[in-house]
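Q: What structure does this chain adopt?
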Amino acid sequence: MFSKNKISQLFKIRYPIIQAGMVWVSGWKLASAVSNNGGLGLIGSGSMKPDLLQEHIKKCKKATDKPFGVNIPLLREDAGSLIDTVINENIKIVFTSAGHPGKFIDKLKKNNITVVHVVPSLKFALKAESVGCDAVVGEGVEAGGHNGKDEITTFCLIPLLSDNLNIPVIAAGGIADGRGIVAALTLGAHGVQIGTRFAATVESSASQVYKDEIIKSGDNNTTLILKKIGLTRVIKNKFSEIVAEAENKGATENKLFELLDKKRERLGIFEGNKEEGLLEAGQGVGLINSILTVEELFDKLLKEIEISINDLKNKINLLNL
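A:
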């Protein structure tokens, strides 16, 4: 079905389905399971020091002989050390986010690394293409975690990127089932990146409490907070209410950083404190109602893709075009 797909060919994978590199979620177990099932697994280095990233890479290599990559947030102070780690470990696929890829692109390219950058708008996508990125992830504001300040939706962003870029486009944000994958491809994407749905799998390193909160959440259970210091979509809880109240009262950036501190993501996602932690998740939570193994999830997605394609064909036939 996807043998001639640009993303499948770029990464040498069976399906153009990429698992997002999420903090406290995307360790070697999840990344290797996704790669073993035909997608592209990503180790999320955003919650790792270089030595821990090295450990996860080595374990992932033992668990799969398929391609996998590493996601590196470029705003981290030790981003350069994380990049040195992936180079030393001979990783050939790097997804960058939260910063300008031009800072490290020459170094990555000199080591024959395929570079993909996550972007929230056409402006940043064009910059990524201009410095030599091989593809971009167009991430709509439906996505969990950090988002673009312009709050552009996936439905609007992907056609814009498709129309204006010469490199492949990967869609992200709100994609949680096979219908979403088909919709993204119809809008012009060559592949998809899925986060929250993979966070709620057996192999995810997140706490069971966090996974259960994803399952419990409906369509109105996420909210956007921290716009002044980095717009973030999270599951509503006590902490998000405190932040929203502070923002409504005109809290300064310093006050918001003080509220956030550096441990909120770990507290919520990894340690399972569902009231005081930051529970990052996308709007697709309403479509997620079970915790599956990665293998079960791929079976489900592929069946849904087939059903959606057939349904789309039938609807187009009814139009008498």
